[in-house]
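Standup, Tuesday
Yesterday: got the pipeline producing structure tokens again.
Today: sanity-check two examples.
Blockers: none.

Example 1:
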Amino acid sequence: MKAIRIHFTDNGDELRTEEVPQPEPTADEVLIKTQAIGVNRADLGRRRTVSEGQQEPPRIPGLDVAGVVETVGANVTNCRPGDQVMALVRGAYAEYSVANSVLTFRPPEGMSTTDAASLPCVFFTAWYAFQMAGLKPGDTALIHSAGSGVGMAGIQIAKALGVRVLTSAGTDERVERGRQLGAEAGVNYSRGDVTEALLRLTDDRGVDMVLDTVGGAIFDATLSALAPGGRVVTVGGHSGERSQYEDQRLASKQQWVRSMGVFNEAQEDADQSGWAQMKAWFETGMLRTIVQEVFPWTMAGEVQELLASRGVFGKVVMEVR
């Protein structure tokens, strides 16, 4: 099969399309013939997996796929060959990929394959972050980076949960689009004092929960605007490392900061109860995805550059043609 792999060279890294062996599903896995690939910021990561000085092996990036089930393992009962599915995978930039059956889902009724490919990583990240934080009706949640995939998903899910939603973004236009998705108000973090603005929006009480995909200085501003009992869930951090914080000091106010990984959280939801709720919300129109543009997967390099430039609101998707 054809796959796009990251190759690491002395002059940096590059994406190459090449022939690789087709994966075989284990007893608990599903083999999916890829039709569309959701592109995420995690795809841009070039983290080393071997010791310095050793050659980094090429690898297939990508976390989101939508397509048709080709074959299933002996223990799989939630889908069968020919079913249209979407999934969280490791190595989505390929004509075929394997997914754990727990991480393989039926798309909402009537949804296009390209829209379905945009869902898993960002909507599940937001959902399980809120579950980790025990978000409940009446809370005030701050969803950073309204224009990111997780921000776009998180604003809508939090609103559906009956939460007061605040958001942030780097431009007034993106803040306004976040408001259109359901946020009550937003903060442009490229100017002004973020902490001061958040405290003003909460009558000096602070926010109950933060979904932080940004990191850097925004993380510090977030901690200073956290209400007693406030919770921060961190995912990624494209604006830089988060500063050190004192757990004991946070605990004195019953506050905490925790990081989460979507694969671990989704696999623990063995009966897919989180997706059952979100799927119903999609089918009633309470949730929607935003796919800014669809590209052929032969343009993977250009698509990643577009995402890295922050020229995307929501998601971009690649079709495998």
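Example 2:
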Amino acid sequence: MDIRLIHYFMSVYEERSFVKAAERMHVVPSALSMQIRNLEEELGTSVFDRTKKGVEATVAGRRFYELCQPIARTLAFAKQEMRDLVQGNSVSGSLRVGMPSATSFGILGDLLQEFTSLYPNVDLTVVEAFSRYVTEQVQSGFLDVALGALPVDHSGLACRPAYRDHFVLISGRPINGPQFSPIDLSAMKELKLVVPSERHLMGATLLDYITGGQIVASRVMKVDGFVGTIESIRRSDWGAVCQAIGVMQYLDRKDLFIYPIFKPVMHLESYFLHHPSRPLTLAARCFVEMLERRLLDVCTAWERIYCWK
């Protein structure tokens, strides 16, 4: 069997669309469709059902995908091992990384300064976006690695835990008393709250909490974007819920009040994501290791301030 057929099949399976898979594989949809028909003839069974809603894998197709995954991983790792062998200890090449906005705002500046100083031969691109977007960009092959939330079902991505972040309420006024006083959002009175819109995972969660009474808010304003959120509350008595990592640079400042949230209990699990058919390069592994150290520093810094249960 031609290995290209396996790659074509896996692309259609993961994208659930001949058009998107063709774009990913840099072929025209008609050619890709013909290759899948050739594969089905070789296997003696259909691997996809073509419907008006898109492409759905058959039982045989799902099983074939499971069998193809270790083959694709082995080939990809073999190619990367050979690249690393030729490259030696020289860290170079291109690297495209995806980062959530809060993480970028909290630690990216120092991280990039260290990385670019140590590895000047790496052509680095950083994309800051919502977790859902960076996940899609890893799936499409545009990003080599990303820090994001747990990917959706059938994403086909390799992931491993990176960091558990907690949430704080921030405001330009002492709406909950002294700095770093723990806060119960269900007990607040006249809380004016800035939240992301529903298209953001955290925004949808917060709005559900408000509807369910776990968060009591007298007024709600929706702002997408971490910088916009900070600016909307900096000089007002409005509050905003954000990830603790996003306010790292404000911990020693007096112009922003930060309150660790203990009720409702909220945390966000972040993962390192990459496509299993494209193993991490030496440059990507170096970046991930450096990012992990920075995330550990964040945990240590917060442990000195507040211990979440």
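Quick observation on example 2: Residues 94 and 123 are 4 Å apart (CA to CA). The mean pLDDT is 87.
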